[in-house]
Amino acid sequence: MNVAVLDYGIGNIHSLVKALEAGGARVGVETDAARAVRYEALVLPGVGAFGAAAGVLAPVAPALRAAIAGGLPCLGICLGMQLLFDTSEEGLGMGLGVMPGHVRRMRARRVPHMGWNTFERTTHDPIFSNLDDNIVYYANSFVVEPSNAGDVIAVTEYNGERFVAAVRRDRTWGVQFHPEKSGTTGLQFLRNFLRQVGS
Hints:
single chain, alpha/beta, Rossmann fold, eight-stranded mixed β-sheet, three-stranded mixed β-sheet, 6 helices, 13 strands, 32% strand
């Protein structure tokens, strides 16, 4: 399985590449979206600010949207998931609009949401198969509010606030947590993604 990790110049992607390789993928780190969409799957990594990332992606956003709409499997992680939506309170610029909705600042008593927490599945999705547990690592101050509740496949709760932990539409998934930092559970999650891509 050939997987592109799109490097938009934000955050450390080394651990994500290693985790995907541990799952059996051949990973290419691409700064050019035109090359990235030629792979069998695309991963949008996390960490960073929405406005800066949206600015980098703006020139190539139509090509990315078209490839994903055409069936290219995609996984967005943390910021990468937020970029799948339309807009964000965090900064100017447009997301990819793959899923309708908005990104807003967390309303929890303590922000950021940093560290280990659980998620609760709201529907059966094979991407959650064979996980040891539902404890994963988060690092976020913003959360997504999808316009379509049917896109939500998992939620979580932190400090009195319940919010979306994972979404799916067709062959596109997004997670607010970081599977590459979530131990054996995260590695299995990434294996499940690769299995779904290959099926």
